[in-house]
Amino acid sequence: MTWVLLRGLMREKRHWGDFLAAFEAAFPDEKVITIDFPGNGELVKETSASTIEAMLEAARTQVRQRQPHGNLNLLAISLGAMVAVAWAQAYPQEIQKMVLINTSLSPHNPFYHRLRPQNYLRLLTTMLFANVTQREQLVFALTSNHKSVAIATKAINAWVGYANQYPISRSNIFRQLLAAMRYQSPDQIPHLAPQRSVLLLAGAGDHLVNPRCSTTLASKWRCQLFIHQEAGHDLPLDDGAWVITQIQTWLEEAENQPPRSVPRQDLSNAH
């Protein structure tokens, strides 16, 4: 089986950080593919798509160049999860399973759940006027709950280095934002072949997206949801080992047990 990993807004494949090696070690017999969306990373000189469907086609082209045939598993976070859902909707025969992390899909939740209102002004002014370091410091503050100064410094320094090497344009940032705002996900779960084919993961401490977006989706789609009570938006950064464990447990249960109802989730610590 081949796993395709999809990052979010303004992020490139290097933003998987140490999680990528840990994931590959946990699934040594499976191929792992990471890609950059146009306008990000190695494709920084290209124009970003302004629709999720166009982002999907760009991602699919890259993946099929490296894996022409066979089903895929998708592991995607945030905006990348929108692309994953669009992929499963457009090409259900290509997708075996999906793991969606801290996603927010219209029309299932109101806009103030999909992006917390207290972040609007900071995000807008930082994207328009701040330098790269200030921008990445804000991204870390909004997406990670790590308390370690060393981990924060390491991550921010790496992200600043990525941004300086491949500086994303403001126009491409807005095109990606427009794509996320425009996308309307299906009301029903994409019709993938296997039972128990979608797993949702969320951080109760997500400062960017309200985790109720994931609980709503789990209820509508009747799929499994695990919530980390302390992690933020970037779950692979905050607790990559937990993410891998949930995926492994879910895969084992999906193989050995019949479908079951979605359990109630504890959101007592969610904001």
Short account of what is shown:
46% of the residues lie in helices and 12% in strands.
Structure in words:
This protein is an alpha/beta fold and 271 residues long. It has a single domain, classed as Alpha/Beta hydrolase fold, catalytic domain (Rossmann fold). 46% of the residues lie in helices and 12% in strands. It is built from ten helices and six strands. α9 links the parallel β5 and β6 (224-228). α2 (52-66) crosses α3. The termini are far apart.
Write the layout of secondary structure elements.
Elements: E1 2-6, H1 18-26, E2 31-34, H2 52-66, E3 72-77, H3 79-90, E4 95-101, H4 111-114, H5 120-129, H6 132-143, H7 149-165, H8 170-182, E5 198-203, H9 212-221, E6 224-228, H10 235-256
Parallel strand pairs: 1-2, 1-3, 3-4, 4-5, 5-6
Helix pairs in contact: 1-10, 2-3, 6-7
Show unreliable segments.
Answer: 110-114, 259-266
Our count of helices gives 10
How large is the share of residues in beta strands? 5-15%
Number of strands: 6
The global form is globular
Query: Strand order across the biggest sheet?
Result: 2-1-3-4-5-6
